[in-house]
Amino acid sequence: MAINPENYREDFPVLQEESDGKQIVYFDNAATTHTPEQVLERIEKFYREENSNEGRSLHKLANKATVAYENARATVADFVGAEKDEIIFTRNTTESINIVAEGLDLDGKIAVPKMSHHSEQLPWRRKAEEEGLELEFLPTHEGKLDMEDAREIIDEDTALVSVTHISNVFGCRNPIEELAEIAHENGAYIFVDGAQSVPRIPVDVKKMDIDFLGFSGHKMCGPTGTGAVYGKKELLEDMDPLLVGGGMIETVEEDEVKYGEVPDKFEAGTPNIAGAIGLAKAAEYLESIGLADIDQHERKLNKMMIEGLKEISGVEIHAPEDEIPSVVSFTMEEAHPHDVAEVLNTEAVAVRAGHHCAQPQHQELDLAGTVRASPYFYNTEEEVEEFLQAVKKVKKVF
Ligand SMILES: Cc1ncc(COP(=O)(O)O)c(C=O)c1O
């Protein structure tokens, strides 16, 4: 069903405020999305009515906190088609990937996309370096993962394939089910970086048959400092935790420590209880709108944006030709990406410019950076028009 963004805009306090007399056109959602009243209210309710530590004390308030925290885990698990015990709360996608990279025993090659975000790429690069494992890049062809090359690179010596689900640079979607099949046929695990996909398309870990998935709360209307990692239970059981400390043990004796069960084993110390509850509320909020409809709306805006940008001379779009991307990255002949973003900012249009934490990919394309516009379900067609007018102003300035 087509989304009417006006039905949701009033949920977002930031979208009501004017910046220097102009209503901000917020097209930086791939970096961070805004937080609706429903999530803000849920977090406030926790602090006002349920605040206590979770999983420790036995008093009434502690019980409320524990129930709310564990219900949040169940909601987040449901959101990505996982079982409750297969979800570990984290601070963000970056931590999610580090937990798996540090904890998973690998004996073989690691394959990582060239297009991957540094947060996906660096934990695997460090693991390869520290453990003497070979790391191979999966190349990009015309803004997409090159599947022919991927099929050649992933072989029986591969132990793990890490894949960006939706690229934060090209906005393309990589064929996860196919990659999962190739990885598993070769006896390798597959980790999916869902930072950009979980907020905007339906994601089901069981349907995709993946081993791990990481995502962030702040990119899906949830609070900053929240995220999760999904892992198949039997794999999580075999992994060592990244952090050790309170709340993750079964017994600690002078000469022996036994870790607790999954997922507790991975959540040392007091977790971000309010944040996890806020993240679950954000998942419910997105669910109530419908992920397939969110995707459809975003792609409608992105199509409009691409058509408009193509009309402006000197603009080059960096996206696959045969797909409407989830983010729109472009460069302009006349100006450096940072200068483009600066002028857009004076027009109250918020975008991101730079290498978007994907420097190797930009280097390969010989690009100093790109400008990235990333609308979400609360953005409107009128805002796309304003954005296009602002880009035309950039041309006049330079
Ligand atoms: C594809 C992708 N992976 C990972 C990350 C890292 O997310 P976070 O900073 O929330 O850990 C991002 C953030 O932009 C991203 O776009």
What labels would you give this structure?
single chain; 398 residues; alpha/beta; Aspartate Aminotransferase, domain 1; Aspartate Aminotransferase, domain 2; 2 domains; 4-stranded antiparallel beta sheet; binds pyridoxal-5'-phosphate
CATH superfamily of the largest domain: Type I PLP-dependent aspartate aminotransferase-like (Major domain)
Please outline the major beta sheet: 7 strands, mixed
Query: Which residue ranges are poorly predicted, with pLDDT under 50 across at least 5 consecutive positions?
Result: none
> Which fold name is given in CATH as the topology of the largest domain?
Aspartate Aminotransferase, domain 2
* Ligand identities: pyridoxal-5'-phosphate
Assembly annotation? single chain
Strand order of the largest sheet: 4-12-11-10-9-5-6
Count of domains: 2
CATH architecture of the largest domain: 3-Layer(aba) Sandwich
**What is the residue-mean pLDDT, rounded to a whole number?**
96
Helix/strand/pairing class, anyone? alpha/beta
**Distance N to C terminus:** 42 Å
Number of helices: 15
Short summary of the structure?
By secondary structure, this protein is of the alpha/beta class. Helix content is 41%, strand content 18%. The chain has helices at 6-9, 13-16, 37-50, 60-79, 93-103, 118-131, 147-153, 176-185, 205-208, 233-238, 273-289, 291-310, 337-346, 359-364, 381-397; strands spanning 18-19, 22-23, 25-26, 87-90, 109-113, 135-138, 140-141, 144-145, 158-164, 189-193, 212-216, 227-231, 249-253, 256-259, 315-317, 328-332, 349-350, 352-354, 370-373.
